[in-house]
Each structure stands twice: as structure tokens, then as C-alpha cells.
From TrEMBL:
The lineage of its organism: Eukaryota, Viridiplantae, Chlorophyta, core chlorophytes, Chlorophyceae. Pfam families: Amidase. Belongs to the amidase family. SUPFAM superfamilies: Amidase signature (AS) enzymes. One of its GO terms (molecular function) is catalytic activity. It comes from the Eukaryota. It comes from Tetradesmus obliquus (Green alga). This is Amidase domain-containing protein.
């Protein structure tokens, strides 16, 4: 079961649907791979394995699953995106003790579509820069050559996917932050069109609201990293759609 990480996401989701593997087995396989590789690449410094296992045990699938339903696939979320109950550091010492009290629209969509979040991936401070290092968690490297950068700013997600810690991971892209780390880590990242993947402002007064304004988001998008175009398409089927919190 620990070798499940080698399989494509499309294959694993098909196995889940056919009940040939359970969500709990996948979370455990993801955890085992994280333990094996994280000391080498520093991709996912925030994890929630026990929470993920509990969600896996309790998961019940809808009678008529929507398009893109993931059936319990473990995924990681870049630490510029809020996941309720998990640290929301943005890679900054300023926010090292902040715990998110809301789920971003993207996270809501993932969980509605049957994904299980297992952790949050490293990013440069506030996502600024085409690399991935910060004073809080340190440097993320590409698993192909651990003396080299994973790129950025979604380098943690790209490295985690490349090494098989998760099958899909979220990222953001303002000027290349999905595409650059994909090229450095040998995976697939696509800057999807504005409005395809929902984002929202979060609660009133949240400091992220300014960066989530329509003017900013005409330039910045949320998206995914995967190990193949087929896996990326699977993830976008899960994420794409409208959301009441996203004006675009």
C-alpha cells in the first residue's frame, strides 16, 4: 500500500471509486511517503495526519457524485490559502501563530468534491518571489537535485507532488508561480483562466481581502500542480465552477 504514491491520480481515483482501496489507506500511504522524503526536500512543513485519517474514516460519498469527484484523494494546499483549524502562516514570522478560522472557497470546493487535505506546502514569505524559502520553515528544494531550488512561489506544492507525497497540490500564479516550480520539479502546472477556480475574500476585515479583490485577481489565480496533464485535468474538473464568494 505504501507504493500507491507511484500510481497516477486518475488511476487512484478509479480504484477508490471501485472500492479497491480506501481513503484511509491512501492517507496512510501519503503519510509514509512524506516521512520518507520530507527531510530531504522540505515541501510540506504543516501537516494534519490525524485529522485527515478521521475524515477518511468518516467519509461518505454522495449517491450521484458530481463531475470531478475525488472519492477521498489526499491533496495538499499552499500556505497562502486558509484551511480552517490549520496554521495560516503565509511563510512569514508575522503569522507564525495564526490559525485560520475559515476555509477559502478553493478549500471548500476541494472538500465538497471528496478531497482530503493532509497538509500545507511551503511558500516564500507572502508568496513574493520566484523561489521557495522563508525564515519560518526554511528552503524547499527540487527532489531531482536537492542542491537546487524548487522554484516558486508554489515550490512546496511542486516538490510535494513530484516526490509523491500527494497526488495533487494547490498553488497560485501571478507571474509564473504555478508554471515556474512545475518546470523546476518536472511536474505539470497550468495558469488557468481567471474565474475558473473560485477564490474569495474570507471574513470581513481579513488582511487577505485586499489581495483577493477583483482588481488583484484579474492577475492572480489559484490552480493546481500534478504529475501529468491527465491528473491536472482530473483536479480541475473537481475545482472548476462558480462560488457565491467569488465575484469573478
Amino acid at each position: 500500500m505504501q507504493q500507491l504514491w507511484r500510481l497516477p491520480a486518475v488511476t487512484v481515483v478509479d480504484m477508490l471509486q471501485r472500492q479497491q482501496v480506501t481513503p484511509l489507506q491512501l492517507v496512510e500511504a501519503s503519510e509514509a511517503r512524506w516521512k520518507e522524503t520530507e527531510p530531504l526536500i522540505n515541501a510540506m512543513p504543516i501537516t494534519c495526519w490525524e485529522r485527515a485519517k478521521e475524515k477518511a474514516r468518516q467519509m461518505q460519498h454522495p449517491a450521484n457524485p458530481p463531475r470531478g469527484y475525488l472519492y477521498g484523494l489526499p491533496v495538499a494546499v499552499k500556505d497562502l490559502t486558509a484551511v480552517k483549524g490549520l496554521p495560516f502562516t503565509r511563510g512569514s514570522l508575522l503569522y507564525k501563530d495564526v490559525i485560520a478560522d475559515f476555509d477559502d472557497a478553493l478549500v471548500q470546493r476541494l472538500e465538497q468534491q471528496g478531497a482530503i487535505i493532509v497538509g500545507k506546502t511551503n511558500t516564500p514569505e507572502m508568496g513574493a518571489g520566484s523561489q521557495t524559502y522563508n525564515k519560518l520553515f526554511g528552503t524547499t528544494v527540487t527532489p531531482w537535485d536537492t542542491s537546487k531550488t524548487a522554484g516558486g512561489s508554489s515550490g512546496g506544492s511542486a516538490a510535494a507532488v513530484a516526490v509523491g507525497q500527494v497526488w495533487l497540490a494547490t498553488g497560485t500564479d501571478f507571474g509564473g508561480s504555478l508554471r515556474n516550480p512545475a518546470s523546476y520539479c518536472g511536474v505539470v502546472g497550468m495558469r488557468n483562466s481567471v474565474g475558473v477556480v473560485p477564490q474569495d475574500e474570507g471574513p470581513d476585515g481579513d488582511e487577505a481581502a485586499a489581495r483577493s479583490s477583483p482588481a488583484w485577481r484579474l492577475r492572480s489565480v489559484s490552480g493546481l500542480l500534478a504529475r501529468s496533464t491527465a491528473d491536472l485535468a482530473l483536479g480541475l474538473d473537481a475545482l472548476a465552477g462558480t462560488h457565491e464568494g467569488d465575484q469573478l
